[in-house]
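Predict structure. Chain length: 203.
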Amino acid sequence: MSLEFLITSLIVVVAPGTGVLYTLATGLSRGSRASMFAAFGCTLGIVPHMAAAILGLAALLHASAVAFHTFKYVGVAYLLYMAWNTLRERGALKVESDLDARSAAQVAVTGVLINILNPKLSIFFLAFLPQFIRADEAQPLARMLELSAVFMLMTFVVFVGYGLFAASLRDRVISRPRVMTWLRRTFAGAFIALGLRLALADR
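Prediction complete.
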């Protein structure tokens, strides 16, 4: 495992994106346990993209304008839906004291969908992972799986860190209605901005 791969992966994982935003919002509104489910869901959501990259399906997505744009606009619609729910106090910033099994599952599923519905991830992994596999690699598939596993582990650890940080501020945030209103508008605006960025993305 090269140091270059680890550093590059860390930069990619730490960079603010939809998954980070969702994990932070979940930690602020529902606490540390919920943020871990969010981190798990977001991490699980990149598995199909990595599988697509490994199996070459991402190249097909890249080549097909119809497939790419269909996938992309479904993702945009979901981000706008999340923004709307956040403003209505039913989405990522829905305050809950107790996290039951159903709520935990909903948190994880939302995290999965956030990443699954982003076609740029498949294309990113298609371009990213092969860079760290030597031309003379004896078992390239095994190497790709190894790199994917490390990337996923790093994603989960970093996202849990984000979530726990947000959860540590929870009591000071949810007790202030004005702050919560401001946060809901901010997070909703951020989801809208990410949706617009995805809408304008090219293959």
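Summary: The longest helix spans residues 140-168.
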